[in-house]
Specification:
It is found in: Membrane. By secondary structure, the chain is mainly alpha-helical. The chain has 17 helices and no strands.
């Protein structure tokens, strides 16, 4: 993650076709790093938490994504202000050469939080459940847990039946036994993550079309335009995205994973249909705040529901310690396949009003499919001990 962030900023060439090839390669490398960290963050938190507050702790970790969006937008705004003042770019002129340096600097700065994460992660011991159940070193697991939580083993134990299982899963991942025991759960996680990412990445893709109605109407330099787009992202994050994450933290261990996932998919479907069906005649060329409210509610309920449960919490709670991070990663890969399908499939739709209307209605239908997958296949993990998976 550290080196790939730096390499993205040093993508060779300045011509569009050349820089996209090298940037694409370095973004692939960055994806490998993020793909490794994503399931680890959820798994580490789930294995250090108890059954009663586990959902809130995992959701709290995931909520930092909202602050990451906020900080990234703030960094973009700051860089644009500095470059705009330094270059005095002509709003109606050609894109200044300095713009090529600005976007590279924004990407390189991502190495800073990645470096801090690496340092703190290296200071952490392996989780006690993995050490005891997979590495078979119970004494080390006890010492690690006592060191992390600064309490005695007697205080760590939740209930008698939650002590570490002496007979953890011994069958391999690619086996009939695994499919028999966990195949349905893995399919439920992967399918729900695929569906939510089709919707989530598609509505993010539409932002350029949507934000264009709310940007200043006068001619702007490239730095001014990027600044105003980032400002709109800050507004969405503060008013919708971050509150959705915190609502998930509050509700996840009170109402359960399945209920808030169903609710999230349902409200997302309603919001997208309310935007999509009358889009051509009502929303297409308007700055009506009603559109922005419905659009923001889609993000709020996505983060309150499926974007938190399917992509972070449930996959970290359903599988044995031996497979937990791997199955989370497989589900994540399915989700990113959904992101590709959504981005490529709806790219053309985002350029025309008719296409936007149809795409939004289809995305609403996909949310309905997500509800069906949640209701029929996703098990409730609230209050469930991780040792039950063994």
């Amino acid at each position: 993650m550290i080196f790939s962030s730096i390499w993205c900023g040093f993508s060779a060439c300045t011509s569009r076709s050349c820089v996209l090839v090298t940037l694409g390669f370095f973004r692939f490398a960055l994806g490998v790093g993020i793909g490794g960290d994503y399931p680890l963050s959820a798994t580490i938190m789930s294995e250090f938490a108890n059954r009663h507050t586990r959902g809130a702790f995992i959701a709290a970790v995931f909520s930092m994504q909202g602050f990451g969006i906020l900080v990234s937008s703030a960094v973009t705004m700051a860089v644009c202000v500095v470059f705009d003042r330094a270059t005095g770019a002509d709003p109606v002129g050609e894109t200044p050469q300095e713009a090529d340096l600005a976007w590279r600097l924004i990407l390189v700065l991502a190495a800073v939080p990645a470096g801090l994460t690496f340092y703190w992660r290296m200071m952490m011991p392996e989780t006690a459940r993995f050490t005891a159940l997979v590495e078979k070193n119970v004494e080390q697991a006890v010492r690690d847990m006592q060191g992390v939580l600064a309490v005695s083993l007697a205080q760590i134990a939740e209930e008698e039946e939650e002590t570490l299982s002496p007979n953890p899963a011994s069958y391999p991942l690619l086996s009939g036994e695994f499919l028999h025991r966990h195949g349905r759960d893995l399919f439920a996680c992967a399918a729900a993550w695929f569906l939510v990412d089709v919707v989530f990445y598609s509505i993010n893709l539409f932002q350029s079309n949507i934000y264009s109605h709310y940007l200043p109407k006068h001619h702007m330099s490239v730095f001014e335009e990027a600044f105003h787009v980032a400002k709109l992202q800050v507004i969405i994050a503060v008013c919708s995205t971050i509150p959705g994450y915190f609502a998930a933290v509050y509700l996840i261990d009170r109402t359960g994973r399945v209920k808030i996932q169903l609710t999230g998919f349902f409200i997302m479907a309603l919001g997208l249909l309310a935007i999509g069906i009358p889009y051509k005649n009502f929303w297409r060329n308007t700055t009506n705040m009603g559109f922005m409210v419905l659009y923001s509610l889609t993000f709020f309920f996505a983060n309150l529901g499926p974007n938190t449960t399917t992509t972070f919490i449930v996959p970290a709670e359903l599988f044995p310690a031996r497979f937990r991070a791997t199955c989370h990663g497989i589900s994540g890969a399915a989700g990113k396949l959904g992101a590709v399908v959504g981005s490529v499939g709806f790219l053309r739709a985002s350029t025309t009003g008719e296409g936007m209307a149809a795409a939004l209605v289809i995305l609403g239908g996909i949310c309905v499919v997500g509800m069906a997958v949640t209701y029929l296949l996703t098990p409730e993990t609230m209050g469930r001990s991780l040792e039950e998976n063994e």
